[in-house]
């Protein structure tokens, strides 16, 4: 392997590592946001988005009506956004 190929390989390894680190950080940030929410909203979001359960399956798992699951999803999305905004704002303040 010549020097150019080595550098290209090193750069690709660095980019793969950087992407992996960003993915890990994103997952940790989402988990922190979920932890800051009401338990029912967090559970519904986790089941729907992370465990890919349908609304019908969530109804059965949590013993809720479909309309209540949809309400919790709506409220949960809003709460997660607010939690993530608070977390990121706090982190930015600490960086500055």
Report on the structure:
This protein has helices at residues 3-35, 39-50, 55-62, 66-95. The protein is 86% helix and 0% strand. The protein is mostly helical and 96 residues long. It contains 4 helices and no strands. The chain is flat.
Radius of gyration, CA atoms, in whole angstroms: 19 Å
Number of helices: 4
Largest sheet features: none
Mean pLDDT: 87
Q: Work out the strand percent.
A: under 5%
Structural class per helix/strand content?
mainly alpha
Task: List descriptors.
96 residues; mainly alpha; 86% helix; flat
Write the layout of secondary structure elements.
Layout: H1 3-35, H2 39-50, H3 55-62, H4 66-95
Helix pairs in contact: 1-4, 2-4
Summarize the structure.
With about 100 residues, this protein is an all-alpha fold. It has helices at about 5-35, 40-50, 55-60, 65-95.
